[in-house]
Amino acid sequence: MQIDMSLKKRLAYMFLGIFGMGIFLSFLLKVGYGTDTSSFMNSSVAAKFGISLGTTLVCTNALFLIPEIIWGRKLIGIGTIANMTLIVHFRFLHLS
Question: In which band, very low, low, confident or very high, does the pLDDT at 86 lie, cut at 50, 70 and 90?
Fold first, then answer.
């Protein structure tokens, strides 16, 4: 299967962006500035129910995906799935 150069470039930018979001989000947590609103909600839910933040992120992202599947299926691409799953790993990669 041949992948053209523009797709490779777009995928590289996508992974670089997701990696950057995960790393910089972990920096914000380390220095005590807090997080973005979505991560704040997830960390509050995790603390309330006594489950890990990673599990909470994956579960809430799956819940947010349901309306997107129903009303915006054509907008879902590899970037949607990668952002939902990889930012969790990149964030915890730096914190560990």
Answer: confident
Q: How far apart are CA 94 and CA 3, in angstroms?
A: 31
Q: Where are the domains of the chain?
A: 5-95
Cβ proximity of 15 and 86 under 8 Å: yes
pLDDT tens by residue, 44-71: 888 899 998 788 888 888 899 999 999 9
* pTM of the predicted structure, to 2 decimals: 0.70
The pLDDT value recorded for residue 1 is 56
Contact (CB, 8 A) for 9 and 19: no
Torsion angle in degrees (nearest 10) through CA of 65, 66, 69, 70 = -150
Give exposure, 15-53, as e/b (b: 16+ Cβ within 10 Å): eeebbebbeebbeebeeeeebeeebeebbebbeeeeeeb
3-class secondary-structure state, position 4: coil
